[in-house]
Amino acid sequence: MRTSKSKTSKPRTSKPGTSKQTMGAILAGTMLGAALLAGCQNKNDGASAPSSSDSASGSAAATASAGSAADLPEVELVWYLRGSKPKNADSVIARANEITREKIHATVDYRFVEPGDYDQKMQLIMGAGEPFDLVWTSSWSNNYVANATKGAYLALDDYLDAVPKLKESMPDKIWNGVKVNGSIYGVNNYQILGGPHGMSFRKDIVEKYNIDLDSIKSVKDLTPIFEQVKAGEPDMVMVKYGVPALLPYGESGVPPKVEDFIVDTNTWQVGSYLYADDSMVEGYKLMREWYQKGFFPKNVATAAEADQSLEQAGKLFAQFEVAKPGAEEELALKYGYDVVVKPLTDPLFITKAALTSTLNAVSRTSANPERALMFLELINTDKELYNTLVFGLEGQDYTMTGDNRIEKIPDTYQFDAWELGNQFNAYFNGTQPDSVWEDTKAINDAAEVDPMLDFSADLTPIQNELTQIKAAQKEFYVILKNGLADPEEAMKNFENKLAQSGEEKVRTELQKQIDAWRSTVK
Amino acid sequence: MAVRSKRKIAVGEWVVHAYLAVVSLLFILPLWAVISISISDEVDITKYGFSLIPRNLDFTSYRYIFESPATILNAYKVTIIVSGAALVLYLLVSSMAAYALSRSNFKYGKAISFYLFFTMLFNGGLVPYYILMNQYLHLRNSYLALILPLIGNVWYIFIMRTNFRQIPDAIVESAKIDGAGELQIYYKIILPLSKPVLATVGLLQLLANWNAWFQAMLFIDKSELYPLQYLLQTILRNAQELSRGFENSMVSFTASQPLPTESMRMAMAVIATGPMLLIFPFFQKYFVKGLTVGSVKG
User: Fold this and answer.
1) Domain span holding position B186
2) Does B216 lie in the same domain as B151?
3) Which residue from A174, A204, A253, B241 lies 20 to 30 Å from B207 (Cα-Cα)?
4) CB A41 to CB B45 under 8 A?
5) B 2-41: CB under 8 A from A
6) How many of the other CB atoms lie within 10 Å of CB of B36?
7) pLDDT digits (tens, 9 = 90+) for B220-236
8) In what order do the strands lie in the sheet with A257-258?
């Protein structure tokens, strides 16, 4: 046996071609297999994608015949939104598409992107030049100014004349405020723009300890109140996280700033970095005192600020809030107990950050920009469409309790109202006072406009430095604002880090740009 | 003398054991902390901070998760399908490739090895990858978008190639004489002889598959197709994201979705890692063997 094996092994070398070919075939087969699989899936994908949207739009087909925009060819718009897909979304979107199909002969593919992935995913989608029509954008996520500067968004100035109702739906100061390098690149989701910052307090505790909230003039005055409550309610957390900014903002107002660098609007000099400014350090010191007195929860260093388990357990006394109209009713709904809201700063002026804090932009890759604008007009002016997308369907997701008032059915469809459009078109929810939108509009109209509003910085030459500064801010601010370390010591490290990050270069560059801007203003 | 030397060894052993005990504690404690937090009362956590022994046992988190288990179960389903399919495909593809490359009479072996090796060092980058998958292969929102990227791991092909080379040529030749074709040799001879390395590679790859979430982030929009790890990732990251911009934005944002509590997040972590912890011991006997078979022996 053994000998025969070794002898007959020779023929192998005599015809090497076959085995080589087979080797190659195996290898090629593996690669081909992958390609084939891909091909198969391609077909599947194509077949399954319409079926899901069909079920959504199929029922609408019957009603779509007689629309004012019926002469336009029907298109599907793609809209990227920041948020998890809500419950009951399919039926709600089907209804929304009925409305849009009838009115502007278009349906919308609502693409919900997880908030945590939104920035990265949108960067990829825009970087890949993928065709889509609408995208939610802001100053704090999926950066509006940066993307507009890069040319990812379409300049809307010329298109806006075709949609007069959209243009009229909000004041001119908003349209001016969202301009980047002189052009409008996004449609603001009109909501509250100013409004003082303050704190909310649990009403029953305030009454129990007979606390005179009117005596609070500064955030400093809270220390003895917290001490008193803490002594009586050892189980309670006084405040969830540090609020150092309330001190300087309360004393001297919010400073005008660009990229968090304070600007003196009398001399137009770029000053210190906001989070390292002396006024802020006073706030940090106060927070250190609070930390040492045990006003914060034990896990303040790691806890997510939006985590609401403390509220749910009824273990929180005070909380940072924007003291806007209707806040007390809204918060009572959110927390499940009554609160009193006390403003601790003057109404803030309207900043670029506020104006660009939530917008919808049209992509440069959109095949139907006119229709996208028509859709934006519709969602900003049509109460039915807007409320459907915010609250869902009557009966399924909410019940009508008044003329313009609804009661939400818990655990049903709900999407962030501030992402979709003009918030003043929303139904009153639960116990929101009837005057809430009027009062909010009054604040908006009365609010002063940031003197820096017309200035938009070109950040490309200082991008690296800004990234590093933001990283340093992220690293130290959580320590400083919650008083986790001695503020003097931490500030020293923070300032060193800022200096290393190129703070000076940023300041010089911003100064140069502000000087150039000032010279054009005069 | 003998007694003394025994004692010396005993002391040495004690040191080693103590050292290993400390090391294993370092590995076990964080895991234990996760479990402990997951069964702690949420209010205790905020009041007293984390502790290794829960002050009050509280299974609300688990109850909450399993109250509407559809999401988690669906994510499990996706993960199991994806890791399973990717594992089988990967073992097939990579062992075939490795076998072909291991044969010394394969003419383009070197060139192809280099080509494969090259992809370990350089790649086209994220955006081209994204464009390829979405715009050319149209794999968005498909199982394949989750599976295909997982079978592109080149490293284990080389490990397997080394392993296959140690199988004597004579065995292959004898099979040939007995009338076996190349595929038959691969399937009937090489694979059975390589069980340890297949099991090792399989386990490592299964772990990687189980934990993979990045391609889901890139290519999946539909929540029905979220794998487990990505589901957890989104839940955790959403909580962080929602808190971002709360304090410093001039306007107020109220989140429309409830946020998971700390203990709920840990409970999710337990649920996600649990199965892997159970699978590992079954593979262990192959695992130790497999680690050594790939290496050169004297």
Assistant:
1) 68-293
2) yes
3) B241
4) no
5) none
6) 17
7) 888 889 998 888 878 77
8) A257-258, A261-264, A269-273
